[in-house]
Write a structure and sequence with these properties.
By secondary structure, this protein is of the alpha/beta class. It contains eleven helices and nine strands. Helix content is about 35%, strand content about 15%. It has two domains: about 1-190, NADH:ubiquinone oxidoreductase-like, 20kDa subunit (Rossmann fold, 3-Layer(aba) Sandwich); about 195-260, Alpha-Beta Plaits (2-Layer Sandwich), CATH 3.30.70. The longest helix is centred in the middle third of the chain and has 13 residues, at about 100-110.
């Protein structure tokens, strides 16, 4: 996959934000100052998104080693003081009783050109929304919120966890300043849909579902089953991550235009 990405970076010379002279077997290493500076922050979550970022070497090795500079991350970089960043990936919801997390998130907003809600916990709270005080080992932590409740979020990558393919393609699109590709991620940053039931109210009941099954493929808990061409939601399995609605092609198309074309 990344051989094609390299070709794309080599030929797209008009882009101001592009990494010049994308690495290849024969090319010299890119000057670090020319690379996007990426940071990673882990708040309240399971670290699954961080594992997608760092442990899929076959997919992300070229991206992480040759195309970007990882300049901040508690488990990735030996750096305690937060630097200026082009893009900061924030995983996990923010615990409102955790003063350190609140401070770190706000500092990241001040020092980052773009903040990305990295995964569904950061985007809409996911299962942490239903956490409450009394659990071990932090009984005082009782309120968890998506990060957009405290800071402005520029784009979001849904998933529990985010797929490494989505990470790779989104970061490469950012390197290439491809806002058309990033538009869904930008739009969903302000989206509050977080449940399979959103498919029923926002897509199926409006006559927009085509039965493509993309929602079922995006569901990592297998809470969606296609029955007679329509998604059926198992609410006991649904963890409210919002990946199904975000992946539905009909959720991004203009509703008025769709209804006009379908004579609805």
């Amino acid at each position: 996959m990344f051989s094609k990405i390299k070709e794309m970076l080599d030929t797209n010379g008009d882009n101001k934000n592009q990494v010049k002279n994308a690495p290849s077997e024969k090319s010299k290493p890119v000057n670090k100052t020319n690379k996007p500076r990426i940071g990673y922050i882990h708040l309240s979550g399971c670290t699954g998104d961080g594992m997608s970022l760092t442990e899929n070497y076959d997919i992300l090795a070229t991206l992480l080693t040759d195309m970007v500079d990882i300049v901040y991350g508690q488990t990735l970089v030996d750096e305690w003081d937060m630097p200026e960043m082009d893009l900061c990936l924030v995983e996990g919801s923010v615990c409102l009783q955790d003063e350190h997390s609140v401070h770190e998130l706000k500092e990241a907003r001040e020092k980052s050109k773009l903040i990305c809600a990295f995964g569904s916990c950061a985007m809409n709270g996911c299962f942490t929304t239903y956490s409450r005080g009394g659990q071990q080992a932090q009984p005082k932590q009782e309120s968890f919120s998506p990060i957009n409740s405290l800071v402005k979020v520029d784009l979001a990558l849904p998933g529990c966890p985010v797929s490494p393919e989505m990470i790779a393609k989104s970061v490469v699109a950012y390197i290439n300043n491809d806002n058309d590709y990033l538009k869904p991620a930008i739009d969903i940053a302000a989206c509050n849909t977080a449940c399979g039931c959103d498919l029923l109210t926002g897509i199926i009941s409006k006559g927009l579902c085509t039965g493509c099954g993309t929602c079922g493929l995006a569901c990592q808990t297998r809470a969606i089953e296609m029955i007679e061409g329509r998604p059926h939601i198992n609410t006991d399995r649904c963890i409210k991550c919002g990946a199904c609605y975000a992946s539905c092609p009909r959720s991004w198309l203009p509703e008025k235009q769709i209804k006009k074309e379908l004579n609805l």
